[in-house]
Amino acid sequence: MEKIDHKIVKVNGINMHVAEVGEGPSAILFIHGFPELWYTWRHQMLSLSSLGYRAIAPDLRGYGDTDAPPSAAEYTVFHIVGDLVGLLDQLGLDQVFVVGHDWGAVVAWYLCQFRPDRVKALVNMSVPFLPRNPMGKPVATMRHLFGDDYYVCRFQQPGEAEEEFARVDTAKLLLKFLANRNPGLMVVPKAIGFAAIADMPFTLPSWLSEEDVKYYASKFSQKGFTGGLNYYRAIDLNWELSAPWTGQQIKVPVKFIVGDLDVTYNTPGAKEYIHDGGFKRDVPLLQEVVVLKDTAHFINQERPEEVSQHIYEFIQKF
């Protein structure tokens, strides 16, 4: 880990923390999800930099050592993609390979829609492309399909989830998120709350060390969870603002990787969309879909060597 350099870069009106390793002619931009940091990519950064790539992983807006504006309206995908384009400009990179996971995958899909000229190829994990449905706002649709206690719906009210998270040790809460292997929908009734779930006994998985959990906990204890939760609170605003891109396909080469126990893969309708033609229709340059067996949501940390190899096998073609 001491090989990885850290710096603060001014982009798009904020100060962004960036981790970087390697000096190859081709660069890879890694985009993390919730509740993660640049650190989620530590294995891939070291592996791919050793193969001759320049690996770049920022803490996204609202996370870690990057600035966290207070308002959810400052966390639209236009802000986040703007941050990343600004980062590439500051680093002097015209085009990069992109690797995304969870919310980072969502941001990567939008980056490919808004600025495909900046992306050589994309390896995305966990969250498939979700084409904009012009018939209704996403949060209302989720409430209708999954109920008010669905975690995305529970995250909508500013301050509410933060208050629940504050009732439990941050390390315990993060371990609950990271080590969860239940592929069912994440539904958290208010009567139970996130704090009660986090206090349930949970075994540290073999792929996650106490030091890893401490690092995550130290950063989230300092920064809080509001920045990450604001991504969820901007979902409907993203829907409103992205109307001009309705129906637009993803036109960069793509490889998609998901675990068979991932909650996203087991969301009703997801497998059918991924495997029965819908995904390929919306992402015509989709070249490969990989489903890793007995693997849950945080795939890049749970199966680091395999994921690194899958990334390398794909991007070395270009």
Automatic annotation (TrEMBL):
Catalyzed reactions per annotation: (24S)-24,25-epoxycucurbitadienol + H2O = (24R)-24,25-dihydroxycucurbitadienol; an epoxide + H2O = an ethanediol
Pathway noted in the entry: Secondary metabolite biosynthesis; terpenoid biosynthesis
SUPFAM superfamilies: alpha/beta-Hydrolases
EC number(s) stated in the UniProt entry for this protein: 3.3.2.10
Record bears the keyword Acyltransferase: no
Major enzyme class: hydrolase
Residue ranges constituting the AB hydrolase-1 domain according to the UniProt record: 27-300
InterPro entries per the UniProt record, alphabetical: AB_hydrolase_1, AB_hydrolase_fold, Epox_hydrolase-like
Keyword Disulfide bond: no
Key words, A-Z: Hydrolase
Signal sequence annotation: none
Source species, domain of life: Eukaryota
Molecular function GO labels: epoxide hydrolase activity
Record-stated family: Belongs to the AB hydrolase superfamily. Epoxide hydrolase family.
Stated role: Epoxide hydrolase involved in the biosynthesis of cucurbitacin and mogroside tetracyclic triterpene natural products (e.g. siamenoside I and mogrosides IV, V and VI). Cucurbitacins have cytotoxic properties and exhibit deterrent taste as a defense barrier against herbivores. Mogrosides are nonsugar highly oxygenated compounds used as high-intensity zero-calorie sweeteners; they also possess pharmacological properties such as regulating immunity, lowering blood sugar and lipid levels, protecting the liver, and acting as antioxidants and antitumor agents.
Protein name: soluble epoxide hydrolase
